[in-house]
Amino acid sequence: MVNELKVVFDRMGIDVWEVIGAASTKPFGFKAFYPGPGLGGHCIPIDPFYLTWKARQYDMPTRFIELAGEINTSMPRYVVTKTTEALNEHSKSLKGSKVLVLGLAYKKDIDDLRESPSIELIELLRQKGAKVDYNDPYIPRTHKQRRHNLRMASKKL
Predict the structure, then answer these.
(1) For the chain, which terminal residue's Cβ has fewer other Cβ atoms within 10 angstroms, N or C?
(2) pLDDT in tens, 128-141
(3) Biological process (GO) annotations (predicted)?
């Protein structure tokens, strides 16, 4: 849900980080959720769809789960669009720009690339002509995956 709010707030000219900061002043019961480039890992982006599959056998719609999947799947493209817009505001083109992706794993402090949105993000940036590197102390080199083969090494900061 927070990824969708990020997109909506951008369109409305509202800073999602200010909204999260304001919400955090609530004296009790606050749990922060932050927008990101999508979801990754071995379970969260995949497992809810087992439930949608089973629910269909009972003629039960699972629109919210499916919509969340669509939104989270679209986030790498959204990040590329926002990156392009930010560069354009400074009279720069994404094509030929050097981009450093910080963190490759699907969450911090691990070496697991399964379903990481950073992989798709790098591929999309490269398709647009960006020169992309990454830094992730837990992933010194990328390895061939089921759908991806980046062949990259982490750059030192």
Answers:
(1) C
(2) 999 999 999 999 99
(3) polysaccharide biosynthetic process
* Alpha carbons 111 and 106: distance in angstroms, whole number: 9
CB atoms within 10 A of CB 9: 17
| Eight-state DSSP code of residue 155 | P
Domain spans of the chain, in order of start: 40-135
Q: What are 80-125's pLDDT values in tens digits? A: 999 999 999 999 999 999 999 999 999 999 999 988 999 999 999 9
Q: pTM to 2 decimals?
A: 0.84
> What's the longest Cα–Cα distance across the chain?
54
**Residue 115: C-alpha distances to residues 10, 40, 65, 148 (Å):** 26, 5, 17, 10
Q: Which of 45, 53, 89 is nearest to 69 (CA)?
A: 45
Contact 127, 94 (CB under 8 A): no
Q: Which CATH number fits domain 40-135: 2.30.40.10, 3.40.640.10, 1.10.580.10, 3.40.50.720?
A: 3.40.50.720
Which backbone phi and psi does 53 adopt, to 5 degrees?
-60, -45
